[in-house]
Peptidyl-prolyl cis-trans isomerase
Amino acid sequence: MSRIYSLLATLVVVLSFSAHADIQPNNPYPKVTLVTSLGNITVELDRTRAPLTVANFLRYVDKGVYAGTIFHRIVPGFVVQGGGYDKDFQLGAEFDPIPNESGNGLKNEYGTIAMARESAPHTATRQFYFNINDNPRLDPSDSRWGYAVFGHIIKGQDVLEKLAAVESMPFDEVTGWQDVPKNPPLLEQVIVEPAP
């Protein structure tokens, strides 16, 4: 019985996201450009492998909520994470968490974009990260969920390297955050590129 409820819950989520996935609905690989304070990064998203994750990301893009956010976590040799906080470290509004699509065959390899989440598997909302190394420990295995990759950089790898080189430090003793940039790079806006 619980499996039936799980399938019904997934169907409801799929239907609700399909209502919001109206950005280039017939383009399986929409492209977006992230305009950052260090330059532009163009990413090709993969609807064929991560339809719910791409729909979720484009929903936030459509609402313009990434404009003015920061890259708040930069771990050398690991990831550059952003999309959640403004320059005052205030967390932005979130839609409901989405199902984890980490088993889609896409790997956490250098230059890919993936969803950040809490320790529970189905908790991704608006935060994302770029892999600045091959990170197989973020991929799923027989014993654990992974982190869902949903696209890769096609232009602007040099900008990713600039982001990765920003100096990070512990934030404060209250949050316990490590690897917070001393001067967080800004995500000014995300632009959907014209369909081919």
